Amino acid sequence: MEEKYLEDLKDIKEMMHKSSRFISLSGIAGIAAGIVALVGAIIAHQWVFSDLNLKGHQQLIIPGDVTTNLFLISIGTLILAIIVTIFFTTRHSHQKQEKIWDHQTRRLLINLLVPLATGGVMCLLLIFKSFVSMVIPMTLIFYGLALINASKFTLSEIRSLGMVEIILGLTAFQFVDIALICWALGFGFMHIVYGIFMHLKYQS
Questions:
Q1: Who contacts 196 (Cβ-Cβ below 8 Å, separation ≥6)?
Q2: Sign of dihedral through CA atoms 67, 69, 70, 76?
Q3: What is the model's pLDDT at position 204?
Q4: Distance from the CA of 113 to the CA of which of 8, 18, 105, 151 falls in 20 to 30 A?
Q5: Selection from 138, 124, 25 nearest residue 75 by Cα
Q6: Does the pLDDT value for residue 185 go beyond 90?
Q7: Are 69 and 48 in contact (CB under 8 A)?
Q8: What is the rounded distance in angstroms from the CA atom of residue 59 to the CA atom of residue 111?
Q9: 5 vs 114, residue with greater confidence
Q10: 11-20, 70-79, 127-136, 138-147: the lowest-pLDDT one
Q11: Is 1 a domain residue?
Q12: Is the pLDDT of residue 19 over 70?
């Protein structure tokens, strides 16, 4: 009787957890997004940063074609990462017969998008003011803040990932010459590691 009572409490607790958090995140989606980010970092290094002499956070006027390349690479990487994330997360939700769009999803996106949108505007302002070297660390820092802000509406591991992103962003800000490496680690390598961990823990 006591064992049945404890089992019922466990089921109730799990139901409450599912009703208050978005738990359909796919580990495969994290791996795919990480791979996209690594490819984007390699292209950015070849097309943009290999020709820039970033030694500090001084203003740096860059040619218009370089700015265009940086913009296209950034947008292309972001769009492709979003597409693969949506695809694998949606597929995972269908496999588990879970709703992909509900109240929890909206709360998650709102808390995620506010810091991300703020960081995006900040990065555009930095580019317009020619402080290109600050863009990479700012993307990591604001992304980390967004993950931490949204972590209370999804799996708790997201908070740890956010902390790592912030640390890498601060490191990139301090050591400008390895900023792109920090970016590749944060958006590429850490997403792959996180995706593998989440897949093994929740989906294997």
A1: 27, 31
A2: positive
A3: 53
A4: 18
A5: 124
A6: yes
A7: yes
A8: 32
A9: 114
A10: 11-20
A11: no
A12: no
Q: What is the pTM of this model?
A: 0.78
Looking at residue 45, what is its pLDDT?
79
pLDDT at 203: 62
**Residue 68: both structure tokens together:** 């265009």
Does the structure show a pLDDT above 50 at 5? no
HEC assignment per residue over 64-75: HHHHHHHHHHHH
Task: Tell me whether residue 134 is in a domain.
Answer: yes
12 found inside a domain: no
**Can you give the residue range of the structural domain that contains 74?**
27-203
In terms of pLDDT, which residue wins out, 48 or 120?
120
CA–CA distance, 172 with 45 (Å, rounded to integer): 15
Q: 13 lies in a domain?
A: no
Query: In angstroms, rounded to a whole number, what is the distance separating the alpha carbons of residues 187 and 107?
Result: 23
The span from the first CA to the last CA of the chain, in angstroms, equals 32
Q: Residue 129: name the closest of 28, 61, 40 by CA.
A: 61
DSSP string of 89-155, one letter each residue: HHHHHHHTT--SSSHHHHHHHHHHHHHHHHHHHHHHHHHHTT-GGGHHHHHHHHHHHHHHHHGGGB-
**Tally of domains within the chain:** 1
